[in-house]
Fold:
Amino acid sequence: MTLVAVTALGVGGATVLGALLGFLIKNIPHRYNDALLGFASGVMLAASFSGLITPSLELGNAFITICGIFLGAGCLHLLDRFTPHLHKLSGVEPEAHTNGSIAKVMLFVMAIAIHNLPEGIAAGVGFGSGDHSTALTVAVGIALQNVPEGMVIIAPLLLAGVSARRTFLLALGTGLIEVFGTFLGYFAVSVSQAVLPFALAFAGGTMLYVISDEMIPETHAHGYERLATYSLLAGVCVMLLMDTLIG
Structure:
């Protein structure tokens, strides 16, 4: 339980760390932001298979895994019908956020907060399975993604007129949602090991959805798609090395 708590705080704290960096660097150059998000996409992509989908296949069967993946992705799809995508808010340039109403900025923050819940569940499910090495791999991937994610919500809120204190509290709230999700995933699997294969696949599906629908399109929207692609490959390779060393 101690390891789960530390991981939950680490995963949620990564968003807060990104927010603090966002206060220091209010305008992140697209090149570096896309490289960071690309690297995080690669880490999450590798982690979703090595830590979630592959163990689901080993514990259950292909039918359960496939159903879990599609239901996990479908769950986020339904949530996204009520919240905007990052690229829908920003258009070509993220500075477009600053020209919108406060309602649009708050919807942007809500979208990130909603996505944090299944990401936290993904981290918790891994620990609930008892395989701490793969659970840590998944958690690292999520935490790496949360740092730049926390950074990009600061400038739109500040430029929309939200006070620095309230902006930080909103960023903290998005991180706490991930902490809650981590414990939710852990206890849900701990209560019933019978749902473990489905839960692993469901969490993997949510991660794949976020990577394909949110992260990769954003990294390819500013002219640095090659840098983002090689950053993604670097993220995958880093996780492969981690799996080799941990295993």
